[in-house]
Amino acid sequence: MVYRGAMTSPDTAASPRPKPLVARRPAGPLAGAITVPGDKSISHRALMFAALAIGETRIKGLLEGEDVLRTAAAMQALGATISRDDAQGEGADWLVAGRGVGGLAEPGDVLDMGNSGTAARLLAGVLAAHPFLSVMTGDASLRRRPMRRVTDLLVHGGATFLSREGGRLPLAIRGPAEPMPLAVTTPVPSAQVKSALLLFGLHAPGVTVVEEKEATRDHTEAMLRHFGAHVAVEEVGAGRRIALRGQPELFARDVSVPGDPSSAAFPLVAALLVPGSRVTIRDLGLNPLRTGLLTTLMEMGADIAVANRREQGGEAVGDLVASHAALRGVDVPYERAPSMIDEYPVLAVAAAFAHGTTRMRGLAELRVKESDRLAATAALLAANGARVEIEGDDLLVHGSGRPPAGGGMVETHMDHRLAMSALVLGLAAEAPVAVDDTSFIDTSFPGFVGLMNGLAGETPALVAP
Ligand code: S3P
Fold this sequence. Notes:
The chain has helices spanning 10-14, 40-51, 66-77, 117-127, 148-154, 191-201, 219-226, 261-273, 292-299, 344-353, 373-382, 416-428, 448-456; strands spanning 21-23, 31-34, 56-60, 81-84, 94-97, 111-112, 133-137, 160-164, 168-174, 183-185, 207-212, 231-236, 239-245, 255-256, 278-285, 303-312, 315-323, 331-332, 355-360, 387-391, 394-400, 409-410, 433-435, 462-463. It is of the alpha/beta class and 465 residues long. It has 2 domains: 21-38 and 258-463, UDP-n-acetylglucosamine1-carboxyvinyl-transferase, Chain, CATH 3.65.10.10; 40-245, Enolpyruvate transferase domain (UDP-n-acetylglucosamine1-carboxyvinyl-transferase, Chain, Alpha-beta prism), CATH 3.65.10. The strands form 6 sheets. A 4-stranded mixed beta sheet has the order 22-23-1-24. A 4-stranded mixed beta sheet has the order 2-15-17-16. It has a 4-stranded mixed beta sheet with strand order 4-5-3-14, with helices on one face. α8 (261-273) runs parallel beside α12 (416-428) and α10 (344-353) runs parallel beside α11 (373-382). The longest helix is centred in the middle third of the chain and has 13 residues, at 261-273. The radius of gyration is 21 Å and the shape is globular. The two termini are 37 Å apart. The relative contact order is 0.15. Residues 41, 118, 190-192, 195, 216-217, 341-342, 365 line the site of shikimate-3-phosphate.
């Protein structure tokens, strides 16, 4: 099957048909051994790098969530040939025949990146290096998110952009005939921004240097090496300087995508909160720049064991066993934020069950995620009887050591991680928690509801209202 486009459009499918759901306490403990879908960050990058490589790349374990399918559709619109090896059934491999660095073709239509900030930012870096016109849009959530954090830097390489007020999508991009290498320090700790710059630099002659003041996830650097580019990384204080030699030939390489630690966070925290639970999560990505949640939960007293540590395609992988335990409040330093940036909503849920206050510092970046996650996480907890405050860019959750009351209705604002966090809360709160729309969960974690109900045993805990 040649892939022909995203399966559904969040704008047309999800908004008119929201999927409300209620989460209630399961009849007994959560128990079982699971795998979670492939890592979203690595899946986007695997498709993009494969499209920029010569030859056919086979990707195992690709996340088949809507965000990643948007990237697949975009790379195909740019001239790569992408197919799903259906012969293998569920969990099929994906095959990408690439065009080589600089070989992409002008897309015939607007590229719709749906709900995905990663797809939009990373692709902006690729498109800005091509001397043709491309136009990118997204759903209502993505059209609100800032793009100037990438476009303001990419203009130094010769690209031109036209956008709505505030640098919002839709965005028109025209790359220069000859892209120039960049020497940039990223203004915010963002792997998306860093990756957009490196993807641009791949197309420019000479060496592109990107410096970040705090280290962010390094999947792009790992993937560049995997496909044969020359990348040098130097530690500079708490940050890094990355030097990439431009215009290499990239050659097709097979990629095996580990389970997404940001998705595993939901069954993991659920296992910690539901009394008596014990859940094993296998084949999980454990890149140290992604494991801030594990560090924090362990500081809170969580019972989590890591087993079977190994390396897979330049990425750390292992299994986790999480068991129910009493948690205590902790202070989460702002330096840890990049390594757990997507996990704060579910950490805040865990904190609401802990004894004492958890202060999560330096969360300004949460305001520009799929929703304003700082405000929405506070609202999620407050609606369910937890005591919560926002102080500047810090989130404070005051736990009493007892489950919060629950019984609230949570608004998810087109944000998959808020929906899953609210459902985890409902599995352990005193009263069930209602969620207005869970359709966006499919952007990152298809099968989430079935998987969680599978852990709950005979009687489903996540049900239609
Ligand atoms: C991502 C980086 C993070 C994260 C996002 C995925 C990536 O964003 O929130 O879900 O794949 O590079 P920022 O790097 O902008 O914080």
